[in-house]
Design goal:
By secondary structure, the chain is an alpha/beta fold. The protein has a single domain, classed as Metallo-dependent phosphatases (Purple Acid Phosphatase, chain A, domain 2), CATH 3.60.21. It contains 6 helices and 9 strands; from the N terminus they run βααβαβαβββαβββα. It has a 5-stranded mixed beta sheet with strand order 4-3-2-1-9. Strands 5-6-7-8 form a 4-stranded mixed beta sheet, with no helix packed on it. Helix 5 links the parallel strand 6 and strand 7. The longest helix is centred in the N-terminal third of the chain and has 15 residues. It is globular and about 45 Å long. One of its GO terms (molecular function) is hydrolase activity.
Length: 170
């Protein structure tokens, strides 16, 4: 079993293409490439943490698309996931959390407040905050303690746990 991280897929979100200058001509092209990239790395038995903002689709499209994604999926809720119940995400195959601690990493959608994060690092064995939300806008975040896994920063594919460890110098 391998462990992967991603965030901010925004499946079905037309405006994210322009907002983040994603290299796609349509939502359909974006969605298919994101699915292909995900499944090229993540095997059915792997663990993948999605750190929020999964999709902008209606229930029918969600039910068609999400089961196509490999892996045991754990969702850390993002701001665009708030309109959906935990049971909805469970039906789609996600385990749902607001934050999660995994192998010395604090997983969250938003980058956590820096002062509180430093306090957590100093008082526990947490080594950093793996997050999404900011997409490609990581300026001002101390890269010694933050790692953004938004799809824009990973060539539209998930990040492997080894990449996260290397980022934090481990």
């Amino acid at each position: 079993m391998e462990v992967w991280f991603t965030a901010d897929t925004h499946f079905g979100h037309k405006n994210i293409i322009a907002y983040e200058n994603r290299p796609f001509n349509s939502v359909e092209e974006m969605d298919e490439e994101l699915i292909d990239n995900w499944n090229s790395y993540v095997e059915p038995y792997d663990l993948i943490f999605h750190l929020g903002d999964v999709f902008f689709y209606n229930s029918k499209k969600q039910q068609e698309m999400i089961p196509r994604l490999n892996g045991r999926k754990i969702l850390i809720r993002g701001n665009h996931d708030e309109g959906y119940s935990d049971s909805k995400f469970h039906q789609l195959g996600f385990d749902v959390h607001n934050y999660y601690i995994f192998d010395k990493f604090l997983l969250s959608h938003y980058p956590q407040q820096e002062e509180a994060l430093w306090e957590l690092i100093l008082q526990t064995d947490i080594i950093g905050n793996v997050h999404g939300h900011v997409h490609s806008r990581i300026q001002g975040l101390d890269q010694n303690i933050y790692k953004c896994v938004s799809v824009e920063l990973g060539q539209y594919r998930p990040f492997h746990i080894d990449e996260i460890y290397r980022h934090f110098g481990r």
